[in-house]
């Protein structure tokens, strides 16, 4: 099968998300200019640079109470900071709860009964029990083609690692099993890892 997205795919559901998988989930926490906290998951998320360490996530829809975007991007525009919380398999249900289109004044931490802590280098909340959290300062927001498509880039200013996830000096993902996003309504979980040596090692 071949199709051009501009002409449609003719399938019951869009296969695009199922092709680009698995995708890590950035559980983005923000605090607005008035001190209200927000937490929402984004599966268009990844690390993009080592030095300095940088990450990005993309928001692809809008809410009526936010105009051209969603709460996360709107808050980051105003404050210039955000935190990326890594989602473990054990948090799948509460993460999913925070994905709803809640009102801009709704605190998803409270809504899903998620323990909250303050970040160290930025004025922003974080998921207290997350396996890892990246404290980020905004570098740029890029408006992509299409309605409400924004890519948010940030420099990592601080890193929280949960102690039980460190094994012999390595951050061991098998200790918490990262949740990953597939296509449609599907998810997966990382439980096995293997290593490959590069040709020039």
Write up what this structure looks like:
The chain is built from four helices and 14 strands. It is mostly beta strands and 201 residues long. It has one domain: Pnp Oxidase, Chain A (Roll). The strands form four sheets. The chain has a seven-stranded antiparallel beta sheet, with helices on one face. The chain has a three-stranded antiparallel beta sheet with strand order 1-13-14, with no helix packed on it. A two-stranded antiparallel sheet has the order 7-8. The mean pLDDT is 96.
Distance between the termini: 39 Å
Q: Supply the helix-strand structural class.
A: mainly beta
Major beta sheet, specifics? 7 strands, antiparallel
CATH topology: Pnp Oxidase, Chain A
Beta-strand percentage range: 35-45%
Helicity level: 10-25%
Shape: globular
**What is the level 1 CATH name?**
Mainly Beta
Contiguous runs where pLDDT drops below 50 for at least 5 residues? none
Mean pLDDT: 96
Name the CATH homologous superfamily.
Electron Transport, Fmn-binding Protein, Chain A
- Overall tally of structural domains: 1
Order of helices and strands: HEEEEEHEHHEEEEEEEE
The value of Rg in angstroms is 17 Å
Please identify, by name, the CATH architecture.
Roll
The beta-strand count equals 14
């Amino acid at each position: 099968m071949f199709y051009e997205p501009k002409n449609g795919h003719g399938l019951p559901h869009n296969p695009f998300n199922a092709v680009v998988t698995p995708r890590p989930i950035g559980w983005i926490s923000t605090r607005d200019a008035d001190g209200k906290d927000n937490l929402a998951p984004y599966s268009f998320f990844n690390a993009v640079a080592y030095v300095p360490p940088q990450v990005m996530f993309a928001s692809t829809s809008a809410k009526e109470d936010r105009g051209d975007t969603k709460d996360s991007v709107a808050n980051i525009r105003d404050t210039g900071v955000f935190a990326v919380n890594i989602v473990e398999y054990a948090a799948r249900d509460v993460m999913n709860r925070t994905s709803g289109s809640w009102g801009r004044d709704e605190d998803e931490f409270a809504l899903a009964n998620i323990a909250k802590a303050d970040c160290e280098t930025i004025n922003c909340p974080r998921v207290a029990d997350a396996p890892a959290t990246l404290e980020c300062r905004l570098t740029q927001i890029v408006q992509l083609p299409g309605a409400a498509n924004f890519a948010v880039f940030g420099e990592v200013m601080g890193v929280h690692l949960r102690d039980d996830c460190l094994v012999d000096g390595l951050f061991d993902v098998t200790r918490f099993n990262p949740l990953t996003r597939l296509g449609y309504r599907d998810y997966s979980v990382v439980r096995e890892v293997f290593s490959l040596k590069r040709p020039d090692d």
